[in-house]
Amino acid sequence: MKNNLVQTIKVATAIFAAIGIFSSCNKLKENIKITVPATMEYEFVIPVIEQAGTLDIDNNTVELDIESLIKSENSSLSVSNIQSVIINSLKIEVDDSTRYEDDNLTALSSFEVTLASNSKPNAKVIAKDTKSPSNPYHYDVPVETDFNYGEYFYDKVFTYNIKISSNRATTKEIKCKATIKY
Questions:
Q1: Residue 1: pLDDT band by 50, 70, 90 thresholds?
Q2: SS (H, E, C) the chain
Q3: Contacts for 45 with CB less than 8 Å, ≥ 6 apart
Q4: Could you give phi then psi for residue 51, rounded to 5 degrees?
Q5: How far apart are CA 58 and CA 41, in angstroms?
């Protein structure tokens, strides 16, 4: 009888240990965090600005294979495992061929970029500044860092819309490249 009691206690202990291990594995799996750096680049043109005011430049569609980026970091994960995406920076660089003394980024009085994707078509402001850039050819646009963009990344097609306000007219187009780091 004593052996049966000892055996029952051992079996019960083994069962509780197994339950503890499996529930810990699930908690551990939920708490695993892998950072997958991603960078998106696209080119756009600020057209000749005939008079000060607000202008939607255009929608820029960009493709980025998020699935491949994730798989390169950990082959057992996929976009369905994305829990959080944070934007770290958005930089605008004027192309060398359009670096003009008078027609440059200092003509802007505000700059706004929105993001939408096939998985989340409602556009969200990701970067915005209501001041004129001090550098005529480089612009670090303040980004929204307190928002989780994860749901936007379940697909590989992204649409960025740029809206600017100008403080003066320009006489030439300004070719730019946007670099967004996630």
A1: low
A2: CHHHHHHHHHHHHHHHHHHHHHHHHHHHHHHCCCCCCCEEEEEEEECCCCCCEEEEEEEEEEECCHHHHHHHHCCCCCHHHCCCCCCCEEEEEECHHHCCCCCCHHHEEEEEEEEEECCCCCCEEEEEECCCCCCCCEEEECECCCCCCHHHHCCCEEEEEEEEEECCCCCCCEEEEEEEEC
A3: 57, 173, 174, 175, 176
A4: -155, 155
A5: 15
Residue with tokens 């963009």: 149
What is the arithmetic mean of pLDDT over 76-92? 87
> Tokens in use for 14?
């083994």
Report CA Rg, the chain. 25
Report angle CA 49, 111, 38 to the nearest 5 degrees.
125
pTM, full prediction: 0.76
